[in-house]
Amino acid sequence: MKAVDDLTLEEAQAELARLASDLAAANTAYHRDDAPTITDADYDALKARNLAIEVRYPELKRTDSPTDAVGAAPSEAFGKVRHEIRMLSLGNAFEDEEVAEFESRIRKYLGHTGDLAFTAEPKIDGLSLSLRYEDGVLVRAATRGDGETGEDVTANARTIGDIPHTVTGAPPVMEVRGEVYMSHADFEALNLRQAERGGRTFANPRNAAAGSLRQLDPAITAERPLRFFAYAWGEVSEPLAETQWGVMERFREMGFDVNPFTKLCRGTEEMLTHYRMIEQQRATLGYDIDGVVYKVNDLALQRRLGFRAATPRWAVAHKFPAQLAWTRLLGIDIQVGRTGALSPVARLQPVTVGGVVVQNATLHNEDYIAGRDSRGGTIRDGKDIRVGDWVQIYRAGDVIPKIADVDIAKRPEDAEPFRFPDHCPQCGSVALREEGDAVRRCTGGLICPAQAVERLRHFVSRDAFDIEGLGAKQVEAFHRDGWIRHPADIFLLEERYGTGLQQVKNREGWGAKSAEKLFAAIRARKRIELNRLIFALGIRHVGETSAQLLARHYSTWDAFEGAMTRARIGEGAEWEELIAIDGVGAVMAESVITTFANPAEREAIDALTRHLDVQPVQHRVAMGSPVAGKTVVFTGSLEKMSRAEAKARAEALGAKVSGSVSAKTDLVVAGPGAGSKAKQAESLGVEMIDEGAWLAMIGDA
Question: Which of 228, 457, 512, 522 is the most exposed place for a label (fewest CB within 10 A)?
């Protein structure tokens, strides 16, 4: 996005309109629908950009500015409750310097040079709730809504064990405000029950808590294990105390839960120290938090400081880094993939990172665990990873969580270096690490059950055979029961298990209709495109794109299978042809040839293809194309188009693009800096032209 300082007046106005729309939609999804569409970090970034533009162009501030917005409009499904005192949101701080600025602003606003105390408490990631007591009796409970009007959820709130129905020692009117949340343990148990019932499961504890509180049927809420922390108040008929800390003590005496990690701090340094302590303990709390809230302790000073449009001046939320969290490493499991790769996986004490509950993280390979990179250099300052360690987890978008750092100071005294296995944990075969390979691999091949299952899961994946009704779970179950061992067995499933005592329709979760639909889907997939078949074979280094390259080049299964059968690594016409395909290198070529040369692999492939009608991949030939059917090599620097653009244009005209020059090459297009390929073309007598001539030939000059 364009920097705020570089925006013109018109661009700023348009940007504010877009941000207002995007943030309003995000607020509705999060606060009203309990189904957030963006992460907290992305939301904070959008809101910060909106504020920065308003500061740059204050005259453009909209009447519906997100800066002034709190929550979202209440749902029409609930009765409305107007808050006597608005329920506001908090301003955010992300860096230590911003916390120091928070204290500095307060002192400047008040002209205060003396001692200044703050409370610091975990910021619970749940749903805000206001409880109104009259003469000590709970009479109403309301969500925050848009800050002025919330939803009446009184009947539901009464089912929460942490919320007292009556209190003693309270003023005649008292509104207690706090957060409804769900613990990690209760969240996991709820999702398990929901899955067993075929009901909706939740992405994280916050969504589960919000969805549970906002049920139209209180009986459903009563089944959900909700909790409540009190941390603020609304309307009160008489003061509760003179300080924030004093009010929290009153709440405790009345029977409310107040977070035990709340601490009284004297200035910025103590606040930051407490913040770091809570961040370190985050994974052990048993519930989700996303930062620490600092509040001026003296209520008289709070009243003097007052409010901005949507946030109090006397409080700020110091947010944790959005994609980082500390937790304990409980164990290291070794998983075996379809190519035999032994992949270490960290088993973690559950922690929420970027809005997702994380229980596992990748550890890449044995070097990564030992604190080395693939070239032997140090990572994490050379710190290895051991079971029992406190580790920092990070996520980037939807990427698998990783371990970023280790806190050596918290390492248990009995923690031992992790010994990576040299035998497959599934089949006991030797696990070798080839020179230059960062991964150790099981040598068991098809006798290894883990590899067999993973290959079958890959075989039925969406970009491979994609058989409706036969997903990863079904394949795993059929393999476990001995019904499917190899891909060819899938096409014998109806013959073997469509009749007789053991039938698909008699399995748990299946019936006659679902079984027949499965058989029909399998029959339909006997007719398969060549590129899908090549990808489905699960050959190491051959992904979906590589399978397309091979299929386009060889066109038919007979041509591909024949060439791979005759090919020898590093020599012969078939080898030269294979590595000449643009995008196919020596590593991939060796892998394909090795697969077809392996007797067990070959037997499985032949058994499979006997059941298939493999459809050829036809080259698209443009009518009147001067290069249709020709093999073209591009070398040197192209000045009028990128290499990828030139390749795509050539293939669209029916040419084959190769990565190397051979006797089968028809044309070499050489730009400035052409080296060995130009010399080879010259020695072989292959026609060679420059980029201008190429463009003229294809009519793009």
Answer: 512
